[in-house]
Amino acid sequence: MKNLKIKHLIYIIFLGMTISIIGNMAIDFFSLKTIFPINNTFTNSIYKMPMWKGVAIVGIFYPFFEELIFRGIIYKAIRKYINIIFSIIITSLLFAFIHFNIAQGLYAFFASVIFCIIIEKYKSFIIPFVCHLSANITTLLFYRDIEKLLFKDKIFLFTIVLILFILILFRINKKEV
User: Fold this and answer.
1) In this structure, which long-range contacts are made by residues 49-57, counting pairs with CB atoms below 8 Å and at least 24 apart in sequence?
2) Does the model's pTM come out above 0.85?
């Protein structure tokens, strides 16, 4: 892993959480679930299963294999033959496609772009996996219970999270003195 420090890992975890919150809020804000209903039996069943099972499957198992396949194999293979921008776009389109839903696919596309940038920066499969794991667990927790209890004003929360996202990206890219 290229120059990985604990503080970078913490930023990556917060980045994953931020990706989740921004992505899910954008889906809600633009009413994408209404325009493109999520009629996926598995997706609906995730929220009904015990939390430990959801975290194990959606939070750990899926991110591990999705990162292994999409960033660890597909992205690296494509990257050997074409430039970084097209490699990221092709990988992200494929990643979006496997979500079988336009609303989730849009979210997955933008998350994949960030995961590809992370793998380019750190040259490690583990770092985008941690970011992906963090995003999925945040989605599972945030959209299962917490949203109903705490965050009624989504515009306010969206603005706060967007500011945090920008600050996290700035801190990750800031050169060490």
Assistant:
1) 51/140, 51/144, 54/140, 54/144, 55/137, 55/140
2) no
